[in-house]
Amino acid sequence: MTRLALIALIALAACKEEQAAAPPDPVDLTETALSYFCQMNVAEHGGPKGQIHLEGYPAPLFFAQVRDMVAYLKSPERDAEITAVYVSDMGAAPSWHEPGISNWVEADQATFVVGAGVAGGMGAPEIVPFATPDAAARFIETYGGTALPLTEIPDDAALGPVDLTQSLETPA
């Protein structure tokens, strides 16, 4: 009986660890969400969005552009451990101007289009996320760019200087 109780206790502890390790769910984008860097209303700007959940923080950090979110991820200066990262699935977005409020995909599962020459919500070149490689390929057929996983996005795609005088396309 003691052996059975010990096994049950170990199983319960493992279950609690799994629950504690489970990442938080994405949060719907609301009219009150503010972009982390500029504190502007995220919903007022088109293009894909990002959200980062930090350990010990009740609400995620929202980003008006995925480019800004990637810059945050590449920065060594953070407030807390990252517990989850989500991006808009632009393959499921109603349009570029309405990227959706709940069509989030885990960033490490997404395919990102880099170098497409499209403008994000804040006017800078955007890194465009998709839940599937096929959706990214369809976007590339129209706008160009390269499909990459999050881990292979080059630093200069998010951290490089931005030439706001360049002509960038705004997808339909």
How are the secondary structure elements laid out?
Blueprint: H1 2-21, E1 50-54, E2 61-63, H2 66-74, E3 82-88, E4 104-106, E5 111-114, E6 128-130, H3 133-143, E7 146-148, H4 155-159
Antiparallel strand pairs: 1-2, 1-3, 3-4, 5-6, 5-7
Molecular structure report:
With 172 residues, the chain is of the alpha+beta class. The chain has a single domain (23-154), classed as Alpha-Beta Plaits. The chain has four helices and seven strands. The chain has helices spanning 2-21, 66-74, 133-143, 155-159, and strands spanning 50-54, 61-63, 82-88, 104-106, 111-114, 128-130, 146-148. The strands form two sheets. A four-stranded antiparallel beta sheet has the order 2-1-3-4. β1 and β2 form a beta hairpin. The longest helix has 20 residues, at 2-21. It starts with a helix and ends in a 13-residue tail after the last helix. The relative contact order is 0.16. The model has no long low-confidence stretch (mean pLDDT 88). Pfam families: NosL (PF05573).
| Mean of all residue-level pLDDT scores | 88
Note the gap between the termini: 67 Å
Low-confidence stretches: none
- CATH level-two architecture: 2-Layer Sandwich
Alpha carbon gyration radius: 19 Å
Strand order within the widest sheet?
A: 2-1-3-4
Number of domains: 1
